[in-house]
Amino acid sequence: MKYTADEIVEVVRMLSEEDLDIRSVTLSVNTLFALSDNLNKIIEKLDNLNSLFSRFSSTVDKIQDKLGVRIVTKRIAVSPIQYFLEIDGIEGLEIAKKLDEMAEKNNIDYIGGYSAFVDRGFTKGSKRVIDTLSETMNSTRRITGMINAASTMSGINTDGVRYFTDQIFKMKPEASSRVTIMANVPPDSPFVPSAHHGNGMPEAMISVAVSGPGVIESAIRRNNPKNFQDLHDIIKRSAFKITRLGELIGKNVANELKVSFGSVDLSLAPSPKVKDSVAGIIEAMGIEKMGGHGSLMALAILMDAIKKGGSMATSSVGGLSSAFIPVSEDAIMSERASEGYIDFFTLLALSSVCNSGIDMVGISKKQGKDKVVGLIMDVLAMGITINKILGVRVIPLDLDPGSHVDLGGLLGKVVVMKLKEVNVEKFVNLGGFVPNTIKRLEMG
Amino acid sequence: MESAVIVVVGADKPGIVAGISSKLAENNVNIIDISQTVLRGIFAMIMIVDISKSKINISKLREELQSKGKELGVEILVYHEEVFKYLERV
After folding, report:
1. CATH code of the domain in which A89 resides
2. Under CATH, which number does the domain B3-88 receive?
3. d(CA A415, CA A433)
4. Do B48 and A7 make contact, defined as CB atoms within 8 angstroms?
5. Nearest by CB to A11, which of B35, B78, B84?
6. C-alpha A367: how far from chain center
7. Could you read off the pLDDT of A366-418 as tens digits, one per residue?
8. Residue B86 to residue A245, Cβ atoms within 8 A
9. What angle do CA A19, A23, A29 make, to 5 degrees?
């Protein structure tokens, strides 16, 4: 097949200058075969997965070498630990440590699934997942956890929100970066920390998340759009190419492993590197500082164009299809948060057009738990009202608002943002269950 | 046929094409297409090569070419053709 020099230069520029890479390849695997009322048996059965994990790891390396495209992280998603903990006497921490060790041994960056679903209420297992969340995260390095505390179908379990908040206050910063509380969590997200092997999925599946904000940013800067349609079109074209690359990698890995290929997230995820920022795209559109008025519309255009371009590139869309704006993981977001252009209400507003929610933001423990519970409730309420997937991942720190801590690697610089100094104690402690909204009735 | 795209960029000097093509010949990699230009002293070359009969796999080839590139003072990028096909052809 013939390629023009322009086409070759375009691809090379995307891959080598604009930092287009694959953020994660995730192997999602059913682990329920290991269920038992005997902890040793569970551990023993899980051990059988070592060979699959190691094959997965070497396959990803092989495909990376073959295609010359960088794959940043390798991840595994397992069945929610909740199911194991429904059985009396089973220690969640021991299972987590085993999985953590298996991940480390096989060169897997994250293993997701210390997860529970409490949107309609607690079971023995889901409550035990929450109760052991801080101990488990503090004593492991690669396992991630998620509590789904709200859904359009069921409503919001506010006690779940409070228990979760109690737990994150006891975590080390690096540990709280590995847990999230969600509304409407999807079963097949390759994204950490919400990755888990959900109901309705095959035995094993490969999902891919791409990371190409740099490509879109420079396409906008280079093409200098004349109007909004023009801008939308430029993003759509780039999103198509980014998603195609994701599908190429995903299919290659899945074929090689003989595992079904799941989906590509039609997503853009930033990394703390320069020129790999979603906020950078918004600023390239002409908003001087991310967070300024118009940012919401800019993000809405970005989201729609990504989804339209991406949906032509892959027939299997899934997971969390969105532009992610984890504050610390995006160098410009993090900078704008320190400068005060982005506060919690800006993030809430932005969440109405994208799926991240409030992600990777530091909070000051001194401001108290109630305000954090209120903040999480706001996000979950928005999720069930507009029927979106949203999550909250905040890092409680013993620091004052305005200060920051660098977690390094992909996690970046966590800025402590100020919660409003308003007492919300009476409201957030009402407790119990917020009924599902009228949206539920529309669903049948 | 399995092909790869090789891109070479760097300061121009004698022997770049010879150096790279002899490395390819050594490994039984056939050049299918080659286009080369010098723009204001910057040497730029794009090659399409057939790697199906190559003695070494593409990642080893990339490694060898890159170390050759270092000797020659040029940057060499090697991508599998599938990447171009997926991104540029629907």
Report:
1. 3.20.70.20
2. 3.30.70.260
3. 32
4. no
5. B84
6. 26
7. 999 999 999 999 999 999 999 999 999 999 999 999 999 999 888 899 999 99
8. yes
9. 165
